[in-house]
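Model: You mentioned two targets. I'll fold them one after the other.
Researcher: Yes, keep them separate.
Model: Target one:
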Amino acid sequence: MRGHGFLLANYVPGNSLIHRTPLALKFLLVFACGLASFIIQDWRISTAVLAVLCGLFLLTGAGLKRLWRAVRPLAAVLLVIGLFQWWQLGAPTAARIVLNILVCVVAASLLTATTPVQKLLDGVVKAASPFKRFGADPERFALTIGIMLRSIPYIAGTFADVRDSARARGLERNPRALILPVFITSVAFARQTGEALAARGLGEAED
C-alpha cells in the first residue's frame, strides 16, 4: 500500500526558525488560528492571514508541493462549500468561509510539518496532565491521537489503491468494488492494532 497524507503535512526534518519554536507556541498558533476563523469577518483579512501562514510554511523548507498534498483532499469539499455559500450568502462570505478553513488546515500542517510525532504526543500528554484530577488519562489520550495519525493515512492509502485497482478492471463506478475491499482492509487493520495494544497491556481500562 502506498503512503498517503490526510489533510495535514507530514514531518519534515529541518533546523528552521519554525522547527526551533517551542511546541507550546506552535500549539498556541493553531489555537489562535482556530479562534480567528470564528472572529474574522472580512475575506481580505483571511487572505492576509493565509498568506502569512503559507510564507511561514515555506520557511520550514517543506515546500508548497507538500502543502498542496495536505490540502488537496479538501479541494472538492471546499468547492462545494464555496459554491453553496456563494449562492446563499454571496461571494465575499463564501470566500471568507473557505479561506478560514484553509487557515486552520495550514496552521495545523505547519505544526505537524515541524514537529516529530513523538514530540507532538509528548506535548499532548503534558498539556492534558492538569486534567488528571478529573479522571483523565493523558497517556491514553496521546495514544488515541497516535493511533489516529497512523490509521487515517493508512485507510486513505488503502482507498487510493483499491480505486486504482478497480479502475484497471473497469469497475471504478461500482460501489461494491470500492467500499467492500476498503472495509475489509480497515477492519483487519483495526484488529491488528487492537491485538498489538493488547499484547503490550494497553487499550483496556485499569481496575
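Model: Target two:
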Amino acid sequence: MITLSNNHQFQFIAASGALAFDGKGWPWEWPLRWVGLIKPEFFTIIVKSLTLNPRRGNLRWWNPCRAVRCLRGGTVNAVGLANPGIDRWIKNSYPKIEKSPWHFVVSIAGENLQEYMEMTVRLKNCKAIKALEINASCPNSSGELQQNTQAVIDTAQALKYISPFPLILKLACTHDYIKIAKALEGAVEAISINSVPWSAAFPDKKSPLAKFGGGGVSGKIVQQHNWKMVAELSQNTKIPVIGSSVWNYNDIIDLFGFGAKAVAFGSVFLRYPWRPTCYVRRYLKNQKT
C-alpha cells in the first residue's frame, strides 16, 4: 500500500481515464455503476489526463472505436489526449469531485516544463485532490518528456517546489526509468506505468491505428514489458511502484510479488469494465480470511 505525504493511503487505482473526468465513468459504464458492478469507492481515481488547452485528439464520442482497437489480451489506443483543457475541467468537473466522497488524483500532460508548471499553479486551489500525476509518457503526445530523460527529471524536480500536492510520475518502459527514479527519490512519491508504444511492443508489425501514429498497447499482451519495469524499479529505487497491465485476478498477486505497492486497472476497464470491482472485492475478502 502506498502512503502519500498527505497521509492518503491507496492500494487500488482506476488508471487515468478509466472512469472519465469525474469518476462516474463513461456513458457506457454508467449502467454498471448504477447496479454496483463498478464501485468507484474501491479505487483512487486518476482523471483522464488534462492539457493546458483543450485538445480534440482522435477520439470521437459517437465513434469510440475510431481510435481504439481490441487485441487478444489487450487493447491499442490512439485517443491522443482528448480533453476539455484544464480551465474547463476546473470549472465543470472539479465541483463534482469536491462534493464526492471518492478519492481523486489529477493527471496532467504538457508539451514542456512551462505548461506543466502553469497547470500545477492553476490547480493549487483544488484542495480535494489527493495527488498530481505527471504524465511523461503518453505514446500519442509529442511532448519533450517522451524522449528526454533530463527533461523528465527537471520537470518533476521543478513541480516538487510549486505543487501543493504529492507527485506521482507516469513513465513508460521506453524511458530510462531507473536513472529517472534514482534522480527523483525524495521528489516524487510514486511511479505509475503507462501503455507501451506500438513500435516497442510490435516492432515488426503494422499497427491497426497506424494512421494515428501507432498508439499505445495495454493489457496482458504487454505484461512482459511492464512487469519487468515493476520488478527493476522495485529493486533499484525507494520510490513505491504502481503495477499495471492487470487482466486477470491472479495478476494482482503477481504484481505484488514483483514488488508493486499498489495496482492500477487501465484497459481492462475498456474490455471488461466490471472486472476491476470484482477483483478488488475478491482480494479484500481473501485478505480477511
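Researcher: Noted. Anything on target two?
Model: The chain has a mean pLDDT of 92.
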